[in-house]
Prior knowledge:
Oligomer: single chain
CATH class of the largest domain: Alpha Beta
Number of helices: 11
Largest sheet: 6 strands, antiparallel
Helix content: 25-40%
CATH superfamily of the largest domain: HUPs
Amino acid sequence: xxxxxxxxLVKAVGLISGGLDSTVAAKVxxxxxxxxxxxYFAMPWGCCDKTKAIEAAIAIDIKFIVxxxxxxxxxxxxxxxxxxxxxxxxxxxxxxHMFSRAAQYMKHIGADFVFTGEVLGQRPxxxxxxxxxxxxxxxxxxxxxxxxxxxxxxxxxIPEQEGLIDRNQLLQITGRSRKMQYEIARxxxxxxxTPPAGGCLLTDKNFARRMKDTLDHGYRNFRExxxxxxxRHYRIEEGFKLIxxxxxxxxxSLVRYAHRDDIIMEFPDKRGPTLVLKGEKPSEKIxxxxxxxxxxxxxxxxxxxxxxxxxxxxxxxxxxxxxxxxLTDADIKxxxx
Length: 337
Protein backbone atom coordinates (compact mmCIF):
# COMPACT_ATOMS: atom_id res chain seq x y z
CA UNK A 1 0.00 0.00 0.00
CA UNK A 2 1.44 3.39 -1.04
CA UNK A 3 1.56 5.82 1.84
CA UNK A 4 -0.02 9.24 1.45
CA UNK A 5 2.55 12.04 1.81
CA UNK A 6 0.42 15.19 1.63
CA UNK A 7 -0.23 17.32 4.69
CA UNK A 8 -3.09 19.04 2.90
CA LEU A 9 -5.38 18.23 0.01
CA VAL A 10 -3.05 18.35 -2.98
CA LYS A 11 -4.54 19.14 -6.39
CA ALA A 12 -2.95 18.50 -9.76
CA VAL A 13 -3.92 18.98 -13.39
CA GLY A 14 -2.93 16.08 -15.63
CA LEU A 15 -2.95 16.01 -19.42
CA ILE A 16 -4.92 12.91 -20.42
CA SER A 17 -4.91 11.62 -23.99
CA GLY A 18 -6.40 8.22 -23.23
CA GLY A 19 -3.10 6.58 -24.15
CA LEU A 20 -0.96 4.26 -22.05
CA ASP A 21 1.56 6.82 -20.79
CA SER A 22 -0.85 9.52 -19.63
CA THR A 23 -3.18 6.96 -18.03
CA VAL A 24 -0.37 5.30 -16.06
CA ALA A 25 0.97 8.73 -15.02
CA ALA A 26 -2.47 9.79 -13.76
CA LYS A 27 -2.89 6.57 -11.79
CA VAL A 28 0.57 6.92 -10.19
CA UNK A 29 -0.18 10.50 -9.09
CA UNK A 30 -3.68 9.68 -7.88
CA UNK A 31 -2.37 6.77 -5.79
CA UNK A 32 -0.13 9.26 -3.97
CA UNK A 33 -3.26 10.85 -2.55
CA UNK A 34 -3.51 13.69 -5.06
CA UNK A 35 -6.86 15.06 -6.26
CA UNK A 36 -6.37 14.73 -10.02
CA UNK A 37 -8.15 16.87 -12.61
CA UNK A 38 -7.67 15.32 -16.05
CA UNK A 39 -7.62 17.62 -19.09
CA TYR A 40 -8.13 16.45 -22.66
CA PHE A 41 -7.32 18.81 -25.54
CA ALA A 42 -9.72 18.34 -28.46
CA MET A 43 -8.74 19.22 -32.00
CA PRO A 44 -10.84 18.81 -35.17
CA TRP A 45 -8.62 16.18 -36.78
CA GLY A 46 -8.62 14.09 -33.61
CA CYS A 47 -5.05 12.91 -32.93
CA CYS A 48 -6.22 11.19 -29.74
CA ASP A 49 -9.44 9.34 -28.95
CA LYS A 50 -11.65 11.45 -26.67
CA THR A 51 -13.87 8.47 -25.87
CA LYS A 52 -10.86 6.46 -24.69
CA ALA A 53 -9.66 9.42 -22.61
CA ILE A 54 -13.05 9.62 -20.90
CA GLU A 55 -13.07 5.86 -20.31
CA ALA A 56 -9.56 6.01 -18.84
CA ALA A 57 -10.55 8.86 -16.50
CA ILE A 58 -13.61 6.93 -15.31
CA ALA A 59 -11.60 3.74 -14.82
CA ILE A 60 -9.00 5.41 -12.57
CA ASP A 61 -11.65 7.61 -10.94
CA ILE A 62 -10.38 11.12 -11.63
CA LYS A 63 -12.17 14.33 -12.59
CA PHE A 64 -12.12 15.14 -16.30
CA ILE A 65 -12.75 18.10 -18.60
CA VAL A 66 -12.33 18.75 -22.33
CA UNK A 67 -10.65 21.92 -23.59
CA UNK A 68 -11.13 22.78 -27.27
CA UNK A 69 -8.15 23.96 -29.28
CA UNK A 70 -8.97 26.91 -31.53
CA UNK A 71 -7.58 29.44 -34.03
CA UNK A 72 -4.70 30.24 -31.66
CA UNK A 73 -3.52 26.67 -32.13
CA UNK A 74 -3.61 26.98 -35.93
CA UNK A 75 -1.58 30.18 -35.76
CA UNK A 76 1.02 28.28 -33.75
CA UNK A 77 1.05 25.53 -36.41
CA UNK A 78 1.51 28.20 -39.10
CA UNK A 79 4.56 29.75 -37.43
CA UNK A 80 6.14 27.62 -34.69
CA UNK A 81 8.97 29.24 -32.75
CA UNK A 82 10.86 25.96 -32.38
CA UNK A 83 10.27 24.65 -35.91
CA UNK A 84 8.77 21.49 -37.39
CA UNK A 85 9.55 17.81 -37.16
CA UNK A 86 9.46 15.41 -40.12
CA UNK A 87 6.44 17.08 -41.74
CA UNK A 88 4.39 19.95 -40.32
CA UNK A 89 4.44 18.83 -36.69
CA UNK A 90 5.48 21.65 -34.31
CA UNK A 91 5.99 19.25 -31.40
CA UNK A 92 7.75 21.58 -28.94
CA UNK A 93 5.43 24.52 -29.65
CA UNK A 94 2.41 22.22 -29.46
CA UNK A 95 3.44 21.13 -25.95
CA UNK A 96 4.04 24.74 -24.94
CA HIS A 97 0.59 25.76 -26.21
CA MET A 98 -1.23 22.96 -24.39
CA PHE A 99 0.77 23.20 -21.19
CA SER A 100 0.22 26.97 -21.07
CA ARG A 101 -3.52 26.40 -21.13
CA ALA A 102 -3.16 23.66 -18.54
CA ALA A 103 -1.25 26.17 -16.38
CA GLN A 104 -4.16 28.61 -16.68
CA TYR A 105 -6.57 25.90 -15.60
CA MET A 106 -4.25 24.99 -12.72
CA LYS A 107 -4.47 28.57 -11.43
CA HIS A 108 -8.21 28.67 -12.02
CA ILE A 109 -8.92 25.68 -9.76
CA GLY A 110 -6.14 26.40 -7.28
CA ALA A 111 -4.12 23.28 -8.12
CA ASP A 112 -0.52 22.81 -7.03
CA PHE A 113 1.09 21.53 -10.20
CA VAL A 114 0.62 20.10 -13.72
CA PHE A 115 1.75 16.63 -14.75
CA THR A 116 2.06 14.71 -18.01
CA GLY A 117 2.82 11.19 -19.23
CA GLU A 118 6.01 12.28 -21.02
CA VAL A 119 9.01 9.97 -20.92
CA LEU A 120 12.57 11.23 -21.32
CA GLY A 121 13.91 10.21 -24.73
CA GLN A 122 10.66 8.80 -26.08
CA ARG A 123 10.03 11.50 -28.69
CA PRO A 124 12.89 12.99 -30.76
CA UNK A 125 11.70 16.62 -30.66
CA UNK A 126 9.68 17.30 -27.53
CA UNK A 127 10.98 14.74 -25.05
CA UNK A 128 14.68 15.42 -25.00
CA UNK A 129 16.05 16.96 -21.83
CA UNK A 130 16.68 20.43 -23.26
CA UNK A 131 13.27 20.49 -25.03
CA UNK A 132 11.51 19.54 -21.81
CA UNK A 133 13.30 22.39 -20.07
CA UNK A 134 12.23 24.89 -22.76
CA UNK A 135 8.64 23.74 -22.44
CA UNK A 136 8.68 24.15 -18.67
CA UNK A 137 10.18 27.64 -18.80
CA UNK A 138 8.00 28.98 -21.63
CA UNK A 139 4.73 27.84 -20.08
CA UNK A 140 5.25 29.56 -16.75
CA UNK A 141 5.41 26.15 -15.09
CA UNK A 142 9.04 26.22 -13.98
CA UNK A 143 9.28 23.81 -11.06
CA UNK A 144 5.59 22.93 -11.33
CA UNK A 145 5.57 20.55 -14.30
CA UNK A 146 5.92 16.98 -13.07
CA UNK A 147 6.68 13.99 -15.31
CA UNK A 148 5.96 11.10 -12.94
CA UNK A 149 7.10 8.37 -15.35
CA UNK A 150 10.66 9.75 -15.56
CA UNK A 151 10.77 12.09 -12.54
CA UNK A 152 13.73 10.39 -10.88
CA UNK A 153 15.82 11.18 -13.95
CA UNK A 154 14.88 14.87 -13.81
CA UNK A 155 15.53 17.73 -11.38
CA UNK A 156 13.15 17.59 -8.37
CA UNK A 157 10.06 19.76 -8.88
CA ILE A 158 8.59 22.12 -6.29
CA PRO A 159 5.85 19.67 -5.21
CA GLU A 160 8.55 17.06 -4.61
CA GLN A 161 10.75 19.51 -2.70
CA GLU A 162 7.83 20.62 -0.54
CA GLY A 163 6.78 17.07 0.25
CA LEU A 164 3.47 17.25 -1.60
CA ILE A 165 4.65 14.30 -3.69
CA ASP A 166 6.88 11.44 -2.54
CA ARG A 167 9.71 11.43 -5.07
CA ASN A 168 10.63 7.88 -4.05
CA GLN A 169 7.29 6.66 -5.42
CA LEU A 170 7.91 8.22 -8.84
CA LEU A 171 9.52 6.38 -11.74
CA GLN A 172 12.66 6.51 -13.89
CA ILE A 173 11.53 5.27 -17.29
CA THR A 174 13.49 6.36 -20.34
CA GLY A 175 13.55 5.62 -24.07
CA ARG A 176 11.02 4.52 -26.69
CA SER A 177 10.10 1.10 -25.31
CA ARG A 178 6.84 0.92 -23.37
CA LYS A 179 7.54 -2.44 -21.78
CA MET A 180 7.80 -0.86 -18.32
CA GLN A 181 4.54 1.10 -18.75
CA TYR A 182 2.68 -2.07 -19.72
CA GLU A 183 4.05 -3.86 -16.67
CA ILE A 184 3.05 -1.01 -14.35
CA ALA A 185 -0.41 -0.84 -15.94
CA ARG A 186 -0.84 -4.58 -15.28
CA UNK A 187 0.24 -4.21 -11.64
CA UNK A 188 -2.04 -1.22 -11.07
CA UNK A 189 -5.01 -2.92 -12.75
CA UNK A 190 -5.20 -0.41 -15.61
CA UNK A 191 -6.98 -1.84 -18.65
CA UNK A 192 -8.68 1.21 -20.21
CA UNK A 193 -6.22 2.98 -22.51
CA THR A 194 -5.44 3.38 -26.20
CA PRO A 195 -2.53 1.16 -27.31
CA PRO A 196 0.48 3.19 -28.52
CA ALA A 197 0.06 3.68 -32.27
CA GLY A 198 -0.47 6.26 -34.98
CA GLY A 199 0.35 9.64 -33.50
CA CYS A 200 -0.14 13.23 -34.56
CA LEU A 201 -1.59 13.58 -38.05
CA LEU A 202 0.68 16.57 -38.64
CA THR A 203 3.56 14.07 -38.94
CA ASP A 204 1.79 12.52 -41.95
CA LYS A 205 3.12 14.15 -45.13
CA ASN A 206 -0.22 13.94 -46.99
CA PHE A 207 -2.14 15.51 -44.11
CA ALA A 208 0.61 18.10 -43.62
CA ARG A 209 0.33 19.10 -47.30
CA ARG A 210 -3.42 19.66 -46.85
CA MET A 211 -2.82 21.69 -43.71
CA LYS A 212 -0.24 23.89 -45.44
CA ASP A 213 -2.64 24.49 -48.31
CA THR A 214 -5.36 25.51 -45.85
CA LEU A 215 -3.08 27.91 -43.98
CA ASP A 216 -1.71 29.38 -47.23
CA HIS A 217 -5.15 29.99 -48.79
CA GLY A 218 -7.20 30.82 -45.70
CA TYR A 219 -10.08 29.24 -43.81
CA ARG A 220 -13.27 30.60 -42.28
CA ASN A 221 -13.19 28.89 -38.90
CA PHE A 222 -11.19 26.34 -36.95
CA ARG A 223 -13.97 23.75 -37.24
CA GLU A 224 -13.45 23.60 -41.00
CA UNK A 225 -10.11 21.86 -40.56
CA UNK A 226 -11.87 18.67 -39.47
CA UNK A 227 -12.37 17.86 -43.18
CA UNK A 228 -8.60 17.67 -43.70
CA UNK A 229 -8.62 14.07 -42.50
CA UNK A 230 -11.25 12.94 -45.02
CA UNK A 231 -11.44 12.41 -48.75
CA ARG A 232 -9.40 13.55 -51.73
CA HIS A 233 -8.38 17.24 -51.84
CA TYR A 234 -7.92 19.50 -54.87
CA ARG A 235 -7.16 23.18 -55.45
CA ILE A 236 -8.65 24.91 -58.51
CA GLU A 237 -7.23 28.39 -58.90
CA GLU A 238 -6.55 30.57 -55.87
CA GLY A 239 -9.92 30.69 -54.18
CA PHE A 240 -11.50 27.29 -54.84
CA LYS A 241 -10.93 23.99 -53.09
CA LEU A 242 -12.67 20.66 -53.70
CA ILE A 243 -12.99 17.74 -51.27
CA UNK A 244 -14.30 14.42 -52.56
CA UNK A 245 -15.55 11.65 -50.29
CA UNK A 246 -14.04 8.18 -50.73
CA UNK A 247 -16.87 6.17 -49.18
CA UNK A 248 -20.34 6.59 -47.72
CA UNK A 249 -19.07 7.48 -44.27
CA UNK A 250 -16.86 10.24 -45.63
CA UNK A 251 -19.66 11.51 -47.88
CA UNK A 252 -21.95 11.91 -44.86
CA SER A 253 -19.21 13.49 -42.73
CA LEU A 254 -18.24 16.02 -45.39
CA VAL A 255 -21.83 17.22 -45.70
CA ARG A 256 -22.32 17.32 -41.92
CA TYR A 257 -19.25 19.50 -41.36
CA ALA A 258 -19.52 21.66 -44.46
CA HIS A 259 -19.54 25.42 -43.98
CA ARG A 260 -22.96 26.93 -44.63
CA ASP A 261 -21.57 28.72 -47.73
CA ASP A 262 -19.97 25.60 -49.24
CA ILE A 263 -21.41 23.98 -52.38
CA ILE A 264 -22.48 20.32 -52.11
CA MET A 265 -22.48 18.26 -55.31
CA GLU A 266 -23.54 14.69 -56.15
CA PHE A 267 -25.36 12.59 -58.73
CA PRO A 268 -29.18 12.99 -58.69
CA ASP A 269 -29.54 9.35 -57.53
CA LYS A 270 -26.86 9.94 -54.82
CA ARG A 271 -24.86 6.96 -56.07
CA GLY A 272 -21.17 7.76 -56.10
CA PRO A 273 -18.92 10.30 -54.35
CA THR A 274 -20.15 13.47 -52.67
CA LEU A 275 -18.13 16.62 -53.30
CA VAL A 276 -17.76 19.79 -51.24
CA LEU A 277 -16.70 22.93 -53.11
CA LYS A 278 -15.24 25.77 -51.04
CA GLY A 279 -15.05 29.25 -52.55
CA GLU A 280 -17.27 32.21 -53.32
CA LYS A 281 -19.39 32.39 -56.50
CA PRO A 282 -17.86 29.57 -58.54
CA SER A 283 -18.04 30.01 -62.31
CA GLU A 284 -19.60 27.49 -64.69
CA LYS A 285 -16.06 26.34 -65.49
CA ILE A 286 -15.30 25.62 -61.82
CA UNK A 287 -18.63 23.81 -61.37
CA UNK A 288 -17.98 21.69 -64.46
CA UNK A 289 -14.54 20.66 -63.19
CA UNK A 290 -16.04 19.81 -59.80
CA UNK A 291 -18.68 17.68 -61.48
CA UNK A 292 -15.99 16.08 -63.59
CA UNK A 293 -14.15 15.00 -60.43
CA UNK A 294 -17.28 13.33 -59.12
CA UNK A 295 -17.77 11.46 -62.39
CA UNK A 296 -14.06 10.54 -62.64
CA UNK A 297 -14.17 8.74 -59.28
CA UNK A 298 -17.54 7.06 -59.92
CA UNK A 299 -18.59 3.94 -61.81
CA UNK A 300 -19.77 6.29 -64.60
CA UNK A 301 -16.23 7.44 -65.36
CA UNK A 302 -16.22 6.08 -68.91
CA UNK A 303 -19.73 7.29 -69.81
CA UNK A 304 -20.44 10.57 -71.63
CA UNK A 305 -20.54 13.72 -69.47
CA UNK A 306 -23.16 13.35 -66.75
CA UNK A 307 -25.46 15.88 -65.09
CA UNK A 308 -25.00 16.48 -61.37
CA UNK A 309 -27.01 18.32 -58.74
CA UNK A 310 -25.40 21.03 -56.61
CA UNK A 311 -26.65 23.37 -53.89
CA UNK A 312 -25.40 25.65 -51.16
CA UNK A 313 -25.08 23.79 -47.83
CA UNK A 314 -27.39 26.31 -46.16
CA UNK A 315 -30.05 25.99 -48.91
CA UNK A 316 -30.72 22.29 -49.37
CA UNK A 317 -34.00 22.92 -51.21
CA UNK A 318 -32.44 25.09 -53.93
CA UNK A 319 -30.78 22.49 -56.14
CA UNK A 320 -29.30 23.32 -59.54
CA UNK A 321 -27.77 21.20 -62.30
CA UNK A 322 -24.39 21.27 -64.04
CA UNK A 323 -22.75 19.11 -66.70
CA UNK A 324 -19.50 17.35 -65.84
CA UNK A 325 -16.33 18.14 -67.75
CA UNK A 326 -14.53 14.96 -68.80
CA LEU A 327 -11.18 14.92 -66.97
CA THR A 328 -7.99 13.03 -67.78
CA ASP A 329 -5.46 11.56 -65.37
CA ALA A 330 -3.21 14.55 -66.11
CA ASP A 331 -6.05 16.97 -65.28
CA ILE A 332 -6.54 15.27 -61.90
CA LYS A 333 -2.84 15.26 -61.07
CA UNK A 334 -2.48 18.95 -61.93
CA UNK A 335 -4.99 20.06 -59.28
CA UNK A 336 -4.43 17.48 -56.54
CA UNK A 337 -3.17 18.76 -53.20
